[in-house]
Amino acid sequence: MMNIKENLDALRPEIPSNVKLIVVSKMQSLQRIREVYAAGQRRFGENRVQDLIAKQPLLPIDIEWHFIGHLQTNKVKFIAPFVHVIQSIDSLKLLREIDKEALRNNRIIDCMLQIYIATEETKFGLDLTEARNLLASGEFRALHYIRIIGLMGMATYTPDVALIQKEFRTLKVYFDALSKEYFADDPGFTEISTGMSGDYRIAIEEGSTMVRIGSKIFQE
Ligand SMILES: *Cc1c(COP(=O)(O)O)cnc(C)c1O
After folding, report:
1. Among 112, 135, 185, 196, which is disulfide-ready with 87 (CB 3.0 to 4.6 Å)?
2. What is the arithmetic mean of pLDDT over 78-86?
3. Does the C-beta of 195 come closer than 6 Å to ligand 1?
């Protein structure tokens, strides 16, 4: 039986220094999150606003929180005071709201466009055309309290390695294209957030710079 620290110690050598580990703490108790923190981890991810705002005040202030779930515009105000990165941007409307709330809190919030790469119907996100449409208006450049730092995507939940690989490659192709088309003079567009407990090794091989891992760390 492995504990959290052992799980983390086993995982860390697999993650290259240019790849950031986001520990997904959704549905985990404060005590278990504190164990991960005590082992040195500072980046955590949550996918529900209610859970994040319940946990955040009770945990150390230097945790870098990544929001990774579907975000409704009317809930942005609850996380804007502290959230570090919002990885799940799927509309210009949402970006505008984050900009407004970031200004109100006198901060800049890093954002990532969530891109739909899976063959499953259930995954949220933008397809390439929608992402281009969002960026092509240029309006995001006038939003001074948000910064678009990259793309996030989730592969199909499947044992089919070739399919997962294909989806991650697609995300990398999209990243390179959007980077060239809209961020040629923005050195801050650098991140590809992809890879979870079941597929992070493939994700890293295919160019991920941020892996989001939950169950592999918290499992007994
Ligand atoms: C839950 C979740 C993860 C982590 O999944 P595991 O399989 O537990 O590692 C990563 N990304 C998102 C968006 C999630 O909701």
Report:
1. 112
2. 98
3. no
